[in-house]
Amino acid sequence: MSEHEDEQLVGEYPSLPKQKRSQQKRDALLESGRALFIEKGYEQTNAKEIASHAGVATGTFYRYFTDKRQLMMSLLEDQLEKLLPPEPNWTNVDPESFFATLLEQHYKRLNRLGLHRVLPELLLKDPQLAEVVAEARKKIHARILVSLKNAREQGIVWADLDLDTVSWSIMVLSDKIPEKLTECGNQADYSKLAKVICRLVFPPDVLKQLKLNKK
Amino acid sequence: MSEHEDEQLVGEYPSLPKQKRSQQKRDALLESGRALFIEKGYEQTNAKEIASHAGVATGTFYRYFTDKRQLMMSLLEDQLEKLLPPEPNWTNVDPESFFATLLEQHYKRLNRLGLHRVLPELLLKDPQLAEVVAEARKKIHARILVSLKNAREQGIVWADLDLDTVSWSIMVLSDKIPEKLTECGNQADYSKLAKVICRLVFPPDVLKQLKLNKK
Amino acid sequence: MSEHEDEQLVGEYPSLPKQKRSQQKRDALLESGRALFIEKGYEQTNAKEIASHAGVATGTFYRYFTDKRQLMMSLLEDQLEKLLPPEPNWTNVDPESFFATLLEQHYKRLNRLGLHRVLPELLLKDPQLAEVVAEARKKIHARILVSLKNAREQGIVWADLDLDTVSWSIMVLSDKIPEKLTECGNQADYSKLAKVICRLVFPPDVLKQLKLNKK
Amino acid sequence: MSEHEDEQLVGEYPSLPKQKRSQQKRDALLESGRALFIEKGYEQTNAKEIASHAGVATGTFYRYFTDKRQLMMSLLEDQLEKLLPPEPNWTNVDPESFFATLLEQHYKRLNRLGLHRVLPELLLKDPQLAEVVAEARKKIHARILVSLKNAREQGIVWADLDLDTVSWSIMVLSDKIPEKLTECGNQADYSKLAKVICRLVFPPDVLKQLKLNKK
DNA sequence: GATGAATGAGGATTCATTCAT
DNA sequence: GATGAATGAATCCTCATTCAT
């Protein structure tokens, strides 16, 4: 057998759960893994704990996952794509409100996943997983970039900024919201940050016009 | 040298090395710790490896540090403050070049430290250390904020943005440079990012004026 | 069986063994611990040895005991009270034979426990355990004292001796039998020591009378 | 070199200290060893601590002793023989006062040595040392036995007791004084125990006569 | 399928002893 | 002689993984 046999993203499941009870157990394990990874960190959580938190025996864990790394991968697979932002139609929205709402939603999703707290640790130790994450980030980045390019074609974004850099900046700032809220403490910062992001994208006069359009 | 000179934040060392050879060993251990933490991750590195990488016996490690956590703390203490940005005089510099240079320096420092790759992992598991880091970040944030406030008094920054949010954004974007360079691959992105940051701070006409002043 | 039945003095076990096989392993570990403590001394025995002597893996030891100290405590708990002497009815027994038999039994019990050889070492290093042992000794002392007091009320013991001191002396001499047999080598010394003890308790004429009563 | 080269009692000294400074250091080490053995137990004390308590470097310890075992042996050699009781002249003393005084002195010596607290631990792990101690005890036992035999020739001890057992009992009870004082707390128990011991030796009428002789 | 007891390699740490200064 | 830093074998304990029930 090749050492690389599980180089598809998540590897083969020890068994493909087809029945309802099985699926429930697998879900319980995923959820317990997520909760414990967030609470105590990836490294500090072991398979036994995940199993017992999910109300199953240690051995059962290994029926559904080869190890906690695979469970982690499944979590990521399930959820990373949920972070893709929607494609906005700039002429229909108030960009500041739009970004503020987006940031809040993004923050809530990040918080629900919670994984952003453990990811950095994992990326270092698990290059395969790092790739999965990088891929997801590239998608997000690309999605933002496309929006910006569309907007530029409409002549509504700064002409002198590198859109790739701008979209990357938006992504980074969005990702760091949880940290900002922790560091600065103010729960209503979304609109402030939304304003900052809008400045990166729209010249003030354009922004004013867009707001008027909306109303 | 006073016996108490480094009894601050990190607690007492198992032994305060007084002799030159000792200091060399301690330094070798610190450097090995740094290198291995960066290379393999904090969790994946153990005291034995650090010692052997530094060319000393396992026991010697414990002569100088109570455990690898303390070594980590020492690394941070030694180096976090080196990340403080200088206080700029906006009327004397071309802001874009200034930021580009700053970003490049910051990137090089981060890379030299390398610790940014292991920090996230640690912050989760070690609240005491998290505090040290948060403190350092607050200092950096504050330093940037002060610069911006001075600039605002000179009427040279956007009047409608929250400076706290702007300075936080600058810090976050700076910190993520290593990641950007990895993700996007382009080593000459500093000026692009510098432009983006300048847009957050200076209205375009002000910026043009500042550039002229410089010349 | 109640889950709480042995949560007394020794604290909770890492796991309360419920199954028969488990109980067997736990017992095997206890027995191995006892044997090795006696053979090599407490300090000289480690968990790995106890486990391998019991035919289980090191980790299994830690499933049943937090450390060897707890195993020691369990041994003591199980067995100290077995050393309590029976309450004699002086008018029904030949005191010399009674004591001789008692001494022999006590000796055999001590030998079976074997712990008397390691106890002194432990008492110094483990005050909690020292308390357990002191408590047991106090019970034994008290039991002897009660017997003597009853006998004195019947007017059959020396009137001029301090009964507390006498009962303490009996306890001490009994405890040292193993040492005496080692030092002096004579296995049939029980009756000699019994005579000595009888002299501490009964005036010769009373003793003669008691012997007659018996016959 | 033979593995048995130090089978004389204490082994060869790494160096025979002839000079005053050396002798002082050696004494300081012995005293520190004694103090720490008593305070923390033999096993719990290490060479480094003994050295530092004596105000010398670790290496110096090994100049004077091959290891802490040898230091222990030296302590015993120096002091065990001090425990030999004096030869009494029964016709000249009040036996009860004599024994009471003897017990008190013995107790004080034991306490000064303090070693009785660590001996049991050692005897088990170090048969060579056990022999040294057994030898010393035999001497003490013999000394008491001789006294008793002399007394018996004068017809002043019980005729029906085994003198060997009686002398052994006296030794054991004497050795346990520290424990009795701890267990029972009464510092003035010497005379009570002296009475008990006298009962083992002298018939009451003889004792009365001896007391009269004294006066 | 499910269980959870058992495994044992591996990490963290200590300390008796040596030896360069 | 004296020093104390350095050594590394040995110990304690954990936990990912297996497997008999």
Automatic annotation (TrEMBL), chains A, B, C, D:
Q: Which SUPFAM superfamilies match?
A: Homeodomain-like, Tetracyclin repressor-like, C-terminal domain
Keyword Lipid metabolism belongs to the record: no
Q: Which UniProt keywords apply?
A: DNA-binding, Transcription, Transcription regulation
Offer one Pfam family short name for this entry.
TetR_N
User: Looking at the record, which segments are called Disordered?
Assistant: 1-25
Q: Does the keyword Transcription regulation apply?
A: yes
Against InterPro entries, the record matches this protein to: Homeodomain-like_sf, HTH-type_TetR-like_transc_reg, HTH_TetR, Tet_transcr_reg_TetR-rel_C_sf
Per the record, DNA-binding region residues lie at: 46-65
User: From which domain of life does this come?
Assistant: Bacteria
Its Gene Ontology molecular function terms?
DNA-binding transcription factor activity; transcription cis-regulatory region binding
Start and end of every HTH tetR-type domain? 23-83
Name under which the protein is recorded: AcrR family transcriptional regulator
